[in-house]
Design a protein that fits this description.
By secondary structure, the protein is of the alpha+beta class. It contains three helices and seven strands; from the N terminus they run αβββββαββα. The chain has two domains: about 100 residues, VC0802-like (2-Layer Sandwich); about 40 residues, no CATH class. α1 packs across α3. Pfam families: DUF6196.
């Protein structure tokens, strides 16, 4: 469910600190990359693929980085408790990571009704894995 909240910036900060503390965080081993193919050649769906999306002319998928992969990412994901208002979470955490580490991120969202609804896969440059993990620890600790 997408929530609508009217609150001050301070209230948003406090609410989202509670959301990140309550969310189920998973960190993924290894390095991950995006791969591409024309619309006429979609990827085979396998257990290794975490996300598959498309635009007007290409498929794009997120999978373990192989030796010839381009940009490499560290991945983590959040599943949120169904009763919590997590509106604004993506922008809030992306801003915190940019402010603290100087990096942008990517986010791919999905839906799993059995695990609280919307969930997020997050990627940051693989070389910032340890630093991003530390920021997440600090934010989750309150």
């Amino acid at each position: 469910m997408v929530s609508i909240s009217q609150e001050s910036p301070e209230q948003t900060w406090q609410r989202l600190r509670g959301v990140i503390a309550a969310a189920r965080l998973r960190t993924f081993d290894g390095e991950w990359s995006f791969f591409e193919a024309p619309l006429t050649d979609p990827p085979a769906l396998t257990a290794d693929l975490l996300a598959v999306v498309r635009d007007d002319d290409r498929w794009s998928w997120l999978a373990p980085a192989g030796p010839s992969a381009g940009e490499r990412f560290a991945l983590f994901s959040f599943h949120f408790p169904p009763e919590m208002d997590n509106s604004g979470f993506v922008g809030w955490l992306a801003t915190e990571l940019k402010r603290r580490l100087g990096t942008g991120v990517f986010v791919v969202c999905g839906q799993n009704s059995d695990r609280g609804g919307i969930y997020d896969y997050w990627g940051c440059p693989a070389e910032l894995r340890a630093e991003a993990a530390e920021v997440l620890r600090e934010l989750r600790a309150g």
